[in-house]
Amino acid sequence: MTKQIRLKRRAAFRYVFRKGDKSGAKDLTLLSARSREGLKIGLSVSKRVGNAVARNRVKRLLREAIRPLESVLNKDYMYVIVARPSIAELGFAEVCEQVKLVFTRAGKLTC
RNA sequence: CGAGUCAGCCGGACGGUCGCAUGAAAUAUUGAGGAAAGUCCGAGCAUCACAGGGCAAGGGUGCCGGCCAACUACCGGUGAAGGCAACUUCAAGGACAGUGCAACAGAAAGAUACCGCCCGCAUGGGUAAGGAUGGAAAGGCGAGGUAAGAGCUCACCCACAAUUUGGCGACAAUGCGUGAUGUAAACCCCACCCGAUGCAAGAUCGGGAGCACGAAAAGCUGCCCGCAACGCUCCCUAUAUCGCUUGAGCGCAUCAGAAAUGCUGCGCCUAGAUAGAUGACCGUCGAACACAGAACUCGGCUUACAGACUGACUCGUCAU
RNA sequence: GCGGGUGUAGUUCAAUGGUAGAAUGUCAGCCUUCCAAGCUGAUUGCGUGGGUCCGAUUCCCAUCACCCGCU
After folding, report:
1. pLDDT-derived band of residue A35, with 50, 70 and 90 as boundaries?
2. Bridge pairing between strands A77-83 and A21-24
């Protein structure tokens, strides 16, 4: 996940939360909305997930899980992945599985 | 062998592939902690136009000496409390400067007399031994003494304490003498210290508004004094650049010191992100699984913590 | 990151260092053919750990949880 494709602005997050389409899995939710600037991905991990160490770990696992999917995602959308508290107990393989599942359900994989 | 006290130290290591930050770039370099945490203290730094003084209010500290940039921290000592001991803990000045409080109980809570005892016996006077309450009751206990009693006198003890001696000092020893409680983490008194706000400070760049030639406004807790210039003040967007990492820095050694700490020499450069960087997979080691993630930077304090290691000391039991 | 505040009954709030109280809730009884209302009684406690004090919800220190502001 390079800097160019990260979603940064608070306003952009607000837009996605308000307008985006939701699709869920057991431990995370995907929101997607049309983007004018190409592919953008943001992560949202609230304090309910755990302390700073746990939250950082969740964000790293999500980034690592998204990395191989970047080339096959639909480039016209902005995405926000919201983590639920239960995700903190999962390992890397399970996170990967859920991320793939949630993008498939949303129909945003191009191949 | 058992039970315990104190101190120190570590906080996975090595290798491979992919990925992230730094960087002009590279097959290169570096890349979270002992607590980065809590934000409880102390500083640097910055702004409040500049440099100050006095009074008030508010807050903090409070045995002594040392150490430090500074501190309420740290080191050593004194005293008190706890423990058989090693050792641990302590906001530890002042209660004849003043004011207050001491519920209930009890006659009475620093002021006296309910029951009682004695003289007298209508009134009155002298007492505080005994009684009951309470956390605390007029220093304790015994003897002498007396009308009954009383430190009234005496022996022993308790508290305060003149003087002398020792110590830089807190204080310790001595003990002429004295005998009206506790509470200052109640108000307070005394001594010393403290301007406010925090890097979201603030600077540069960009945009806008107001006042204006000698006055007003404003100028960072209140009051008084004092001080100045011509441009000043305010707002907004935004985080683009700076602040942003070489620092009261770290490691080793010598020396001084009882220690905290300091001097000198040599070596080292050791995160700097800005939606916020350390991860994934695999192999080896017996196992690595704790608490936990830098956000301007340091010195402390407090709290959390799997497991591993080292040293010193105390008590008990057994054997020699 | 910086600053500020609050913790008391199941709930909402009081209380000068001296037995923690009110409303409401819950339970039991009375009343009623039954329910509601009413009446009587009971029930449930100071976030946690230390210290000062004869005695602490109150004073002091530490800690935990929650809330608010700046962005």
Report:
1. confident
2. unpaired
CATH of the domain at A85: 3.30.230.10
Residue A84 belongs to a domain: yes
ipTM of the assembly? 0.76
Whether nucleic acid strand B comes within 7 Å of the CB of A14, the answer is: no
User: C-alpha A20: how far from its chain's center?
Assistant: 13
- Answer for the pair A16, A80: CB distance below 8 angstroms, yes or no: yes
Which 3 state secondary structure label does DSSP give A25? coil
Q: What domain range includes position A64?
A: 3-106
**Hits for CB < 7 Å against strand B across A residues 92-111:** 92-93
Please state the domain count of chain A.
1
Task: Classify residue A111: in a domain, yes or no.
Answer: no
